[in-house]
From TrEMBL:
Residues 101-114 have a biased composition (Polar residues). It comes from Cryomyces antarcticus. This is Casein kinase substrate phosphoprotein PP28 domain-containing protein. It comes from the Eukaryota. PANTHER family: NUCLEAR SPECKLE SPLICING REGULATORY PROTEIN 1 HOMOLOG. Residues 79-165 are annotated as: Disordered. Residues 83-100 have a biased composition (Low complexity). Residues 131-165 have a biased composition (Basic and acidic residues).
Length: 184
């Protein structure tokens, strides 16, 4: 019940955050409004914004490809950063801008869920690898023990030969003792 409750509360929290982001995006961009998009050179890229916030004491992660790993940290007070269009000739409509904002919020939630799944997958793989290694070690130890037992086992001919030698020595000792008594 402990872990199940924990994950349930995590999912509810992520769901509430997602709904809040959708509502904020819906309030900012209404269906009839046109979204002005300036392609002015003074706009800063996400990487520049992240570096600036890191310089001020923020903790924004930039991955190896030069992209911001968690865009939710760039968003402040419900204002979504709309990504620049790929080509200058295509300008998104208000509906597509609204859906892209909600998609960004959803991708933020789904990326955290995906990261959680990846961590769990790596943990399970590590546990499986340890169990496999432990089983292989146990099997190797059992094989060594069986080999040692087989090596130390005496064959029937070895046992019968040792028994005959013992009985021969015993007879010789008895004969020597009888000869010593007879000579005295």
């Amino acid at each position: 019940l402990g872990m199940q409750g924990f994950y349930r509360s995590m999912m509810e929290l992520e769901g509430r955050k997602h709904k809040e982001l959708e509502e904020a995006a819906a309030q900012i961009v209404k269906p009839g409004d046109a979204v002005p998009i300036d392609s002015a050179p003074q706009e800063r890229s996400e990487v520049e914004l992240a570096k600036e916030l890191n310089a001020k004491g923020g903790n924004i992660i930039i991955n190896d490809e030069g992209q911001v790993a968690d865009k939710r940290q760039l968003l402040s007070a419900g204002l979504n950063v709309v990504p620049k269009p790929k080509s200058a000739s295509t300008a998104p409509s208000a509906a597509s801008a609204r859906t892209s904002g909600s998609q960004q919020a959803y991708q933020g939630v789904s990326s955290s869920k995906q990261a959680m799944r990846e961590r769990q997958t790596r943990l399970l793989e590590a546990q499986l690898e340890q169990a496999t290694k432990r089983a292989a070690d146990d099997e190797e130890e059992e094989r060594r023990r069986v080999e040692h037992a087989a090596k130390s086992r005496k064959t029937e001919s070895d046992i019968s030969g040792a028994k005959e030698r013992y009985l021969q020595r015993k007879r010789e000792a008895a004969a020597a003792a009888a000869a010593a008594k007879g000579a005295s």
